[in-house]
Amino acid sequence: MSQRDYYEVLGVGRNASEHDIKKAFRRLAMKYHPDRNPDDAEALAKFKEAKEAHDVLSDSRKRSAYDQFGHAGVSSQGGFGGGPGDFGAGGFSDIFGDVFGDIFGGRGGGRRTHRGADLRYDLSLTLEEAVAGKDVKIRIPTTVECHHCGGTGAKPGTKPKECPTCHGAGQVRMQQGFFSIQQTCPQCRGAGKIIEEACSHCRGVGRLREEKTLSVKVPPGVDTGDRIRLSGEGEAGERGGPSGDLYVQVNVQPHPIFTREDNNLFCEVPISFVTAALGGEMEVPTLTGKVVLKVPTGTQTGKMFRMRGKGVKPVRGGPLGDLICRVLVETPVNLNERQKEILREFDASLSAGGKHHSPHSSSWLDGVKNFFEKMGL
Questions:
Q1: What are the structural domains, with CATH classification, of the chain?
Q2: From CA 131, how far away is CA 145, in angstroms rounded?
Q3: In what residue span(s) does the CR-type domain sit (predicted)?
Q4: Is 325 annotated as a binding residue?
């Protein structure tokens, strides 16, 4: 019976890397290993075939001979050897452990480090500061690497020793029947080393609590909810791990004049009855100075006026927003008798003109009259 091509057996290309070959064999071994398929002759045959292919293609010398001469080039070098349970020293359990070793960091593991925690700082800004941008200094409580022991946790002048339980791996292998899994070493808790004499300043932790001052560059145009990330300014990592990040959360305080929506600013501008009726000019504020608002004759309350380019420059780029002014006609209060008399005379003169002076009011009254007539009122 002719032998199948080894690359075909493993399901890989002829340019497959050593990692690809090993991965393909593990997959087939997990599927066809005799320990998982007792009394299954077909599975045994496929396992033998896969192991033979792996033994040749994972060895650079044998693979070179196979690529050049085919099966004849490796027939004298051993082919498949050993019993159906052979794979290293532990049979199927080693395959299982090898697979999980890849997932959790490789066989032997190596000592585990832990990234430091991210921190958050709430930064309150005025609208003017948020729109213009600002450099601010903040103080944050955090953990930093111990300056006395250099983060090792060991007494200055000493060093951590290799853990005698895991021999520096940080993990130990537990085997139950066919299954072999790795878990964190109970003695060193994954560090791979133990401290015989702890640093008196950090008590063996390798980190200290302290406050530090940082400079934060707030870009122009930020708004409530925006975050500024300071990489590596969070808490120090454990066992030499990287530091976390600091996130500065922006909150813009309410403004007495302006409200912001995206890149536009809004403000309400009260105008007198006379200005609304006769028109005129008035100064209104912007975040960069004063501008003149021209109020046309007969302006009604609620009228919107747009000041182009007087809003906010967006933080992520783009055109300037606008300032939108909403005028509110203010009703006079606290009138004296003479002012009241003048208004009565003025109202009488308006009534004489009918719809000419008050088109909206006249139209509304006509609609009300028609409604009452339809209702029979």
A1: 1-71 (1.10.287.110), 119-150+204-252 (2.60.260.20), 258-330 (2.60.260.20), 337-375 (no CATH)
A2: 37
A3: 133-211
A4: no
* CA neighbor of 318 nearest in space, from 249, 221, 224: 221
Does pTM surpass 0.85? no
User: What backbone torsions phi and psi does residue 236 show, to the nearest 5 degrees?
Assistant: -65, 145
Please write the tens of the pLDDT for every residue from 220-238.
Answer: 999 999 999 999 888 887 7
The answer to whether 149 is annotated as binding is yes
Q: Where do the DSSP E strands lie in the chain?
A: 119-125, 134-145, 161-162, 171-176, 179-184, 193-194, 207-218, 227-230, 246-252, 259-261, 264-272, 280-286, 289-295, 304-307, 323-330
In this structure, the number of other CB atoms found within 10 A of the CB of residue 77 comes to 13
Judge whether 267 is annotated as a binding position: no
CA distance to 266, 328, 355, 358, per residue, from 361 (Å): 29, 18, 8, 5
pLDDT cut 70: percent of the chain above it: 83
- Rounded Cα distance, 201 and 184, in Å: 27
DSSP 8-state secondary structure symbol assigned to residue 238: B
The answer to the question of whether 188 is labelled as a binding residue is yes
Asked whether 171 and 108 are in contact (CB, 8 A), the reply is: yes
Chain centre distance of CA 248: 13
